C-alpha cells in the first residue's frame, strides 16, 4: 500500500499570490498597512445587528399603533399627529426610529457600494451621494419632529 503525498506548489508554500487569478494563498502573509488599525467594520457589523433588533420593536410598535389599534389608518389626520407629537415619549420614539432606520439603511448601502463599485471614482461619488442623502434626511426629519407646530393644522 502506498501513501500519496500532496505536493504543494512553490507559490503556495511561500505564501505568494497566484499571478493568474490574483488570489492570495490562504497562508499568505498579509502586508501591514502603515498607521493605526481601526475596528470600524466590526463595530459596523455589530451596529447592524443591534439596530436591527431595536428597529423591529420600534417599527412593529409603530405599525400596531398606527394601523391596527383604535380604528386603524382612518383616524390618522393632523390632529392625531399633533396629539401624538405633543408627548416627548412619542417624539423620542419617532426620532429614534428615524435615526436608526436611516443609519441602518445607509450602513447597508455603504457595504453594497464597497462590494460592487469597481472604480475608486465611482465608489467615491456614490458615497458622497449616500452621505449627503443621509445628512439631509436625518436633518429634515429631526427638524420636523422638533419644530412641529400643531396650531398650523386646519
UniProtKB/TrEMBL annotation:
The chain crosses the membrane at residues 46-65, 85-103, 124-148. It is found in: Membrane. SUPFAM superfamilies: Fumarate reductase respiratory complex transmembrane subunits (SSF81343). This is Succinate dehydrogenase. GO terms for molecular function: metal ion binding. The keyword Zinc does not apply. The keyword Transmembrane applies. Pfam families: Sdh_cyt. Keywords: Heme, Iron, Membrane, Metal-binding, Transmembrane, Transmembrane helix. Its main location: membrane. One of its GO terms (cellular component) is membrane. Residues 1-21 are annotated as: Disordered. It comes from the Bacteria.
